[in-house]
Amino acid sequence: MQRIVVLSGGIGGARFLRGLRRAAPDAGITVIGNTGDDIHLFGLKVCPDLDTVMYTLGGGIHDGQGWGRADETFTVKEELAAYGVGPEWFGLGDRDFATHIVRTQMLGAGYPLSAVTEALCRRWEPGVTLLPMTDDRVETHVVVDDGEGGRKAVHFQEYWVRLRAAVPAHAVLPVGADQAAPAPGVLDALATADVIVFPPSNPVVSIGTILAVPGLREGIADAGVPVVGLSPIIGDAPVRGMADKVLAAVGVPSTAAAVAQHYGSGLLDGWLVDTADADAVGAVEADGIRCRAVPLLMTDIDATAAMAREALSLAEEVKAA
Ligand SMILES: O=c1nc2n(C[C@H](O)[C@H](O)[C@H](O)CO)c3cc(O)ccc3cc-2c(=O)[nH]1
């Protein structure tokens, strides 16, 4: 059985995984999920990226939105607002609340996040092994102007959802990452992988945060297997989301080639760019990363499965080289 490990953020990673599962139905897929977006609200622990993967692969996602539950209602949120209890800018629905209640209850009982995630996945049967990158608390903060001539750090969700990434991000800080340990199963999955895939997730706040957990980069390098990625940037703009805003914060231009160079040939063996960026292939290959231009728009599951097949065949090429 082919063992595929995918480092995933939320929407982009989850949608890619749906295609990968279709493209490689017999493979064992392990997902290392970003937990830097996690936030504590109303006494509950919310894990947006883990939940987005779980709901997307488990058939419970709000498809149009890409996050949260289908057929959602917002009674609890409205009741909280009636008490003047916020934040109102973060849309937690009633069905979604149940997930956070179960999670928080289990964490309170002493289970680590990895065990809680496994328990939640027993309901959703995502068809992959979903592991948080770490059981430790890591919280991505973004440094923005404070409006009084200074700067302040805000939680990633405040930057992303409340501020809509519309203000300049001066720095992105994965707070706590330097003290975090990989969750159980993460290093084993990397060590026994046949291929490691970076889906078109955010290179800074999703994959970058996962790579900030000590031991992860080494685990990937030591695996000695092809590491292939798919560009989240098409034609100099993010496919969706606001990846360009946080790329600017780390000084990386918003181009498919620059993202590959940001990961670097020490980490990445192969890179897929969209056909619109075919002229980037030469620059990426000049940096020692095998590169192909293929359609990268995840318009539907067939198109996404085709992308996943291209990634796996690029990995084969890397291995044969
Ligand atoms: O744009 C939004 N994204 C929301 N997201 C998505 C999330 O903010 C980000 O897209 C990810 O963290 C980035 O991967 C949610 C995800 C959840 O799992 C639960 C609740 C939310 C709520 C919002 C929201 O109100 N607005």
UniProtKB/TrEMBL annotation:
Binding positions for 7,8-didemethyl-8-hydroxy-5-deazariboflavin per the UniProt entry: D51
Reported cofactor(s): Mg(2+)
Species of provenance: Streptomyces johnsoniae
Alphabetical UniProt keywords: Magnesium, Transferase
Catalytic activity: enolpyruvoyl-2-diphospho-5'-guanosine + 7,8-didemethyl-8-hydroxy-5-deazariboflavin = dehydro coenzyme F420-0 + GMP + H(+)
Function: Catalyzes the transfer of the phosphoenolpyruvate moiety from enoylpyruvoyl-2-diphospho-5'-guanosine (EPPG) to 7,8-didemethyl-8-hydroxy-5-deazariboflavin (FO) with the formation of dehydro coenzyme F420-0 and GMP.
Entry EC no(s): 2.7.8.28
One GO MF term attached to the UniProt entry: LPPG:FO 2-phospho-L-lactate transferase activity
Cleavable signal peptide: none
Subunit structure, interactors included: Homodimer.
Pathway as given in its UniProt record: Cofactor biosynthesis; coenzyme F420 biosynthesis
Gene that this sequence comes from: cofD
NCBIfam families: F420_cofD
Full protein name: Phosphoenolpyruvate transferase
Family membership noted in the UniProt record: Belongs to the CofD family.
